[in-house]
């Protein structure tokens, strides 16, 4: 899921609306642009790409607690470069971390910011480590990671182990975002098994479940007229998975794209117009109306499902506020996943 | 009709310009002093707010280096990576400007008064050459620096805010001075000492430390402002009452011509309101001038006494403009309510009796004397109460009570004088003086208050100065004071100095809390200079021997009083240890508590603390030369005793300039009140003087007697003011100081000063009486004769 197209940090108030959500429609200038045909080189590409303006490491997980409850978990690190020539570990980088745990009745979230160049945040490809303050995603390899984060009222410490291959979205990882050709480099690891512990106000909970990691980097991923997006990452009970997004335009139009991922890791890119996403109901969240029930249809896969939020109030009240939370899927395919929505004012 | 009525009312002022002047001048002066003080207070408060917002001081807990030095950047990173949400603050001085570097991404209070809104600004703040934010004054003082200068009026005075990377370059240091601790911390944070053993956590203070400390100072100023305002209102009350009384005939005529009473009253109220607004406007403008003249000294005082930084330039603030106008209106209302009421209730054909009014204004004298006595009794009762509010209430009760008693007291003295008078002229003089007393009593009360304040405050200031000078002499007993920039240099300095000097006393301390109050624990080396030079206020046994042996502790008076400590009782000295209190030492001019323990014990309790400052005894010139040439110490790190003393004393010289200036102003207002009262009475007294003249007393002799009378009354008032002033000084020294600063000062008497002040008061009275007396001496005989011809 999620080309979580967030931020040049702190640029929000002046820019939202004018140039897409969080300034993501801002001209790239001297920054590098994604190129079709780029050949990924792992593990190097797990690390930062400083020539590009923005980049993220984005984990969401659907978890089952030993107490029988269902949980959602988020761990995100964003990198934003102030200048095109900033070194990956130099002072020209700004870093932002978001962490959240969502239950049916509560949504705990917290945010961290850091400058580059002093060691409080960064990413190293091998052995893989991504960190901001005491939060870490690290392991001997990208297939075997430990994920930790903490806020004033929650914490988690979970292990991720990959049970399938990396998945490249779009054209071999070149993911187009608008008719005008804006794009990003985008790959996922949707096959993590998770085991670990959540610390919540009521105490610790042992959890197991599945996680999905997104990696994306770009310099101007949105077209100027694109005002927000609705992003789905769904795992069905039969083992298939779907990443799909709808980018909303100011004139009411939309651009959609999706990747159908087989249980074996095979990926099929579905271009604009194939996936249809239709809001079924809205909830008032943080003083605005946000669609928290959706109908998704994808004719060539016989998909016609309803996607509903586990907790309608999964609002990320951060520097760039957005909605991000676990969802359940019913209809032609049953399953669960994560939904991210931005640009709802 | 309304217009005709208004014209008639206003014509009164045209015919009595002096009265109009008295009214406007009295009200303007009162408003000026009041709003001047308010302006100073508002400016100071705004500066504290800006400082608190700029630096987050007091609002947030802080992590500091235990040895008093800077925090290593590596420790900051280690803390963040362990889950401590701390934010670095770089701090230092450049060209007299405080340079503060904050990290906008992690600072819990953001950038305080500076808002980074648009993306481009964040880019320039964090990247490239950077930006510095400050007031124009601060930016100008900073001189030529690389970063872009941005004017931000809300940044604290003489301070610039910038990003930590810019501050690091400007200040040439890689280490933050301290770390701010965010109020909300994540779960699972390890203890500070396991992450960074050399650092200590200082809790956030309740409220702003600075504003709590300085409140007493501002209360002091406000009390002065109120006193001046009250004196001014005496004048206004007199002027309005007289004007209304004189206009009774006019009111009678207007009503006889058909003007409704209600409209007349409204017109008079409107007229007064207009006058009040004009006078208030003048007063606020004057107040602005006063405040602008005083502010630099207030700023110096606050910096010296409390370490609070206040801008030296006055900003125009609508709040105190409005408050000045409002208080002028309110004051006029209070001063005229009775007069308006009397007009409203006046029988249609009542005659004007201005003289009777003037004499009756002091009426209810017995009631007044009783109220005065009751207030003095209240003051006596308040002696038992504790705290700043009680101390100020005591002051108020004492001053107002004494003022109310003054007319009765003077009357008593004059009656005694009359009984002893020989000869008809003397007899008439005493009787006439007594008879004039009611008309003058308000002015004399004002004089009493002004003089008492003068005596009281000058006694306090001079006592303070004597004590403080002696204290500085005792304390700064070493010949040189040398400081190092870090622990390593400190150790090398000590090794270098020890063979070359007679004695080297390391000055080493850690911050701690005693009974919930911020305090510094000092470790002192065994040295005879402590028992020789440090005067203990209370002590038991051999206090210094106990301290050197690690068996007792000495604290400063502030801490002793604020924490309510007792001799012999255990005191926390940090590191979980407690020692019995063996002595209390005077420590004037220091807002923070001090705890003194022996060097060996200190080193055991606080092994992380290292001395970076040394008091050195020996030949100052030789030591200085050796330090600079052999050791290579920059001269800026060596201070000699004489310079330090001069600097400390200079702070205190400026400290009380403000109170001194307010004193002079209050005395001037009182002098003005006497002048106006005498002038007013002069016109009304002709009927009493004419018979005396007719009996053969020449006009010149009458004029001389007027002068003598003024001097007599002023002298009597001055005599009464002396004991009142001394009582005031005692309250200030023994009550207000203790509550406000935490130290009690011994009271010294300054008879020469009091004599000089008394002389000033007499001169003021003579000057005030000169004009009325001269007018009397030159009254044409025809005017005096008219008294017998005209019906009044």
UniProtKB/TrEMBL annotation, chain B:
The keyword Transcription regulation does not apply. Residues 223-347, 662-781 form the ABC3 transporter permease C-terminal domain. It is a multi-pass membrane protein. Residues 442-627 form the MacB-like periplasmic core domain. Signal peptide: none annotated. InterPro entries: ABC3_permease_C, MacB_PCD, Membrane_comp_ABC_pdt. One of its GO terms (cellular component) is plasma membrane. Keywords: Cell membrane, Membrane, Transmembrane, Transmembrane helix. The chain crosses the membrane at residues 221-244, 264-295, 319-344, 365-385, 391-410, 442-464, 664-686, 707-734, 754-773. Pfam families: FtsX, MacB_PCD. Its main location: membrane. It is found in: Cell membrane. The keyword Transmembrane applies. This is Putative ABC transporter, fused inner membrane subunits.
């Amino acid at each position: 899921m999620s080309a979580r197209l967030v931020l040049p940090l702190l640029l929000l108030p002046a820019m939202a609306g004018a140039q897409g959500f969080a300034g993501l429609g801002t001209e790239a200038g001297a920054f590098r642009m994604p190129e079709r045909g780029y050949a990924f080189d792992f593990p190097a590409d797990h690390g930062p790409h400083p020539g590009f303006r923005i980049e993220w490491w984005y984990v969401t997980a659907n978890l089952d607690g030993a107490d029988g409850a269902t949980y959602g978990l988020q761990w995100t690190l964003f990198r934003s470069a102030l200048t095109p020539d900033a070194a990956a570990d130099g002072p020209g980088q700004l870093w932002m971390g978001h962490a959240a745990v969502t239950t049916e009745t509560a949504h705990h979230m917290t945010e961290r910011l850091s400058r580059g160049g002093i060691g409080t945040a960064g990413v190293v490809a091998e052995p893989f480590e991504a960190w901001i303050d005491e939060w870490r995603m690290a392991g001997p390899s990208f297939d075997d990671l430990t994920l930790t984060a903490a806020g004033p009222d929650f914490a988690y410490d979970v292990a991720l182990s990959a049970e399938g291959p990396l998945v490249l979205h779009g054209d071999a990882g070149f993911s187009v975002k608008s008719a005008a050709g804006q794009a990003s480099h985008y790959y996922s690891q949707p096959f993590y098994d998770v085991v670990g512990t959540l610390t919540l106000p009521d105490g610790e909970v042992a959890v197991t479940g599945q996680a999905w990691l997104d990696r994306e980097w770009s310099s101007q991923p949105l077209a100027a007229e694109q005002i927000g997006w609705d992003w789905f990452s769904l795992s069905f009970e039969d083992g298939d998975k779907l990443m799909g997004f709808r980018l909303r335009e100011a004139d009411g139009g939309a651009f959609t794209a999706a990747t159908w991922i087989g249980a074996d890791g095979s990926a099929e890119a579905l271009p604009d117009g194939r996936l249809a996403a239709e809001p079924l109901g809205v909830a008032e969240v943080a003083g605005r109306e946000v669609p928290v029930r959706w109908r998704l249809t994808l004719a060539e896969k016989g998909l016609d499902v309803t996607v509903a939020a586990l907790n309608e109030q999964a609002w990320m009240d951060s520097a760039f506020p957005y909605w991000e939370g676990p969802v359940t899927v019913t209809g032609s395919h049953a399953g669960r996943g994560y939904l991210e929505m931005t640009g709802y004012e | 009709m309304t217009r005709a009525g208004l014209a008639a009312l206003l014509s009164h002022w045209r015919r009595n310009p002096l009265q109009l002047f008295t009214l406007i001048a009295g009200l303007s002066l009162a408003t000026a002093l009041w709003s001047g003080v308010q302006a100073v207070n508002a400016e100071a408060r705004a500066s504290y707010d800006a400082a608190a917002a700029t630096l987050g001081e007091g609002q947030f807990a802080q992590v500091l280096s235990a040895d008093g030095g800077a925090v290593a950047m590596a420790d900051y990173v280690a803390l963040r990576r362990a889950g401590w949400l701390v934010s670095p603050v770089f701090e230092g001085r450049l060209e007299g400007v405080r340079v503060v570097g904050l990290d906008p991404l992690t600072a819990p209070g953001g950038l305080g008064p500076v808002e980074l809104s648009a993306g481009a600004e964040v880019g320039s703040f964090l990247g490239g050459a950077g930006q510095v934010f400050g007031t124009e004054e601060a930016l100008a003082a900073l001189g030529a620096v690389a970063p872009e200068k941005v004017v931000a009026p809300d940044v604290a005075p003489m301070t610039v805010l910038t990003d930590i990377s810019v501050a690091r370059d400007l200040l040439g240091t890689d280490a933050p001075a301290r770390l701010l601790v965010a109020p909300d911390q994540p779960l699972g944070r390890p203890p500070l000492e396991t992450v960074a053993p050399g650092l200590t956590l200082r809790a956030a203070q309740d409220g702003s430390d600075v504003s709590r400390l300085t409140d007493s100072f501002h209360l002091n100023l406000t009390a002065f402002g109120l006193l001046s305002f009250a004196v001014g209102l005496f004048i206004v009350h007199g002027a309005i009452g007289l004007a209304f009384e004189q206009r009774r005939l006019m009111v009678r005529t207007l009503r006889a011509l058909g003007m409704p009473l209600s409209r007349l009253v409204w017109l008079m109220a409107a007229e007064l309101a207009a006058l009040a607004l004009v006078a208030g406007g003048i007063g606020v403008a004057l107040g602005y001038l006063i405040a602008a003249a005083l502010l630099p000294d207030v700023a110096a005082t606050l910096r010296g006494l409390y370490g609070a930084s206040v801008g030296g330039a006055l900003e125009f603030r609508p709040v105190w403009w409005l408050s000045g106008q409002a208080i002028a209106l309110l004051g006029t209302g209070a001063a005229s309510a009775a007069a308006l009421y009397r007009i409203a209730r006046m029988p249609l054909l009542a005659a004007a009796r201005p003289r009777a009014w003037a004499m009756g204004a002091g009426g209810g004298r017995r009631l007044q004397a009783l109220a005065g006595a009751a207030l003095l009794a209240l003051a006596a009762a308040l002696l038992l109460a504790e705290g700043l509010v009680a101390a100020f209430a005591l002051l108020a009760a004492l001053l107002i009570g004494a003022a109310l008693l003054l007319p009765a007291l003077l009357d008593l003295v004059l009656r005694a004088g009359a009984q002893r008078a020989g000869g008809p002229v003397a007899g008439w003089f005493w009787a006439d003086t007594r008879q004039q007393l009611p008309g003058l009593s308000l002015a004399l009360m004002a004089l009493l208050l002004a003089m008492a304040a003068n005596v009281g405050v000058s006694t306090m200031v001079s006592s303070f100065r004597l004590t403080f000078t002696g204290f500085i002499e005792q304390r700064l007993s070493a010949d040189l004071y040398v400081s190092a920039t870090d622990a390593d240099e400190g150790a090398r300095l000590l090794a270098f100095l020890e063979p070359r000097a007679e004695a080297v006393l390391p000055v080493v301390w850690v911050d701690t809390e005693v009974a919930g109050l911020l305090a510094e624990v000092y470790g002192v080396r065994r040295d005879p200079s402590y028992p020789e030079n440090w005067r203990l206020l209370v002590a038991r046994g051999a206090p210094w021997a106990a301290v050197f042996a690690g068996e007792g502790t000495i604290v400063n008076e502030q801490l002793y009083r604020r924490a309510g400590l007792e001799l012999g009782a255990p005191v926390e000295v940090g590191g979980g240890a407690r020692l019995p209190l063996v002595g209390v030492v005077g420590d004037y001019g220091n807002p923070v508590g001090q705890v003194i323990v022996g060097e060996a014990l200190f080193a055991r309790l606080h092994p992380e603390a290292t001395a970076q400052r040394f008091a050195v005894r020996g030949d100052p010139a030789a030591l200085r030369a050796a330090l600079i040439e052999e050791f290579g110490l920059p001269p800026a790190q060596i201070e000699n005793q004489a310079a330090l003393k001069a600097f400390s004393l200079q702070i205190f010289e400026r400290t009380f300039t403000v109170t001194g200036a307010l004193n002079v102003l209050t005395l001037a207002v009182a002098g003005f009140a006497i002048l106006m009262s005498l002038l007013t009475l002069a016109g009304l007294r002709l009927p009493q003087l004419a018979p005396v003249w007719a009996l053969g007393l020449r006009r010149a002799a009458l004029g001389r007697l007027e002068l003598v009378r003024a001097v007599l009354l002023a002298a009597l008032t001055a005599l009464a003011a002396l004991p009142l002033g001394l009582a005031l000084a005692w309250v200030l020294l023994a009550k207000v100081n203790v509550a406000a600063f935490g130290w009690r000062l011994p009271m010294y008497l300054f008879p020469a000063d009091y004599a000089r002040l008394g002389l000033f008061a007499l001169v003021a009275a003579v000057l005030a009486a000169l004009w009325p007396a001269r007018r009397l001496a030159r009254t044409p005989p025809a005017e005096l004769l008219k008294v017998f011809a005209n019906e009044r």
